[in-house]
Every structure is written in structure tokens, then in C-alpha cells.
Amino acid sequence: MNYEGLNDTQIWKLISADDRKAFGYSFKLYAKALFRYGQKFTSARQVVEDAIQDVFLDLWNKRKTTNIDQSIKFYLFTAFRREIIRKLSRLRMQEPMDYFTPEHLLEASYMEGLIVQQGKNESNQKLYKAIRNLSERQREAVYLRYFANLTYKEISGMMGISVEALYNLIFKSIKVLKASLRESVQYQTK
Fold it and tell me: Where do the RNA polymerase sigma-70 region domain residues begin and end (predicted)?
């Protein structure tokens, strides 16, 4: 069966009906994105991988009682965020979101395309510097919106803030990025 043409609701119906291939497809579809997101919390690769495995195992075990109406991705990101924070708290190894480095953001194909167009090395450095000017919450919100492609409503639920507050947070983040990039261009032309 070709799962690529199915939406999340259809895939979830197959998973809840014990379709292991549909479950494997959802793992293949979302595991890398969850891994990249987990690296924003910690550099401990094994902790991130364990959290991903635990989330998917829990999803499979609860497939008969879990109801996913629209977005498997949102469900997974939300469950994963709780799981990674729980694991890190338990292990007392939580790193600050400062590890949420710009290098990880550049993995997204859209950003890579922009960087290639602007002249790789120089533009990378400007973007790295600009992203470092964002707060931890701003970096997380920008990552979830533009690189994980979650909706404002989904992100607001994950981060525990209102949609309006999230709009403001992302707006301010973009403003900081633009100002930082503009400043680096002006500095360079002097």
C-alpha cells in the first residue's frame, strides 16, 4: 500500500487497526524531525533517541485508546517534548536551550536553499550570529514554526502560551533577525 497519498487521519485509522507498515511509515516520516528537535534540548544523542523510541512505543501501545483527529506530527512533537524534558529532568543533565544552535536550523531545506543563493559561508556566519541574538523561547518558537512546520495553535499548546502571545513572540523574533542581518550588512559595507 502507498501511504504517501494518505492524510494523517487515514494513516492513524490504519495504525489503530494494527497496521504495522503504516506505523513504520509514520516513524520514517517523523523520526528525523523529532531527532533534530531533540538536539535543541541536549547534545546527548542517546537520550534523544531513547525519547523518540519511547514516544513511538507508547503510541503503538496506546493505539486503540488514543484518538488523533488531525495531525500525527503535532501529537508526536507534543509527546516528544514532554518525554525529553522528563528524561532530562530525571537524569539532571538538562542543558539550556543555548544548545539550540543555528547549525541545526540550517538543516531545513528551505533555509539551505536561501543560504546557497546568498553565498554560502558569508551568509551562514551572518545567520548564525543573528540567531544567537534570539532568546531561548524565540529560538524554540521559530524552529517549531518554520522548520518543524507546526501551526501557531499547535505551538501555543506545546509552549503553554496563547496564540496571540506566540504571534508576538515570532514577530519579535523575525524583527530581531532582520535587524541583526541588516546590521551585519551595514557593518560590512562600511
Answer: 28-91
What's at 74, amino acid-wise?
F
| Alpha-carbon span 8 to 88, nearest angstrom | 30
Q: Based on the domain organization, do 120 and 48 belong to the same domain?
A: no
Other CB atoms within a 10 A radius of the CB of residue 101 amount to 16
CATH classification at residue 73: 1.10.1740.10
State the Cα angle at 95 between 89 and 101, rounded to 5°: 140
Say yes or no: 85 and 126 in one domain. Answer: no
Residue 2 placed within a domain: no
Predicted TM-score (pTM) of the model is 0.64
What does the pLDDT look like over 73-88, one tens digit per residue?
889 998 998 898 888 8
Q: Is 3 part of any domain?
A: no
pLDDT digits (tens, 9 = 90+) for 124-141: 677 777 777 888 888 888
Closest CA to 53 of 78, 74, 34: 34
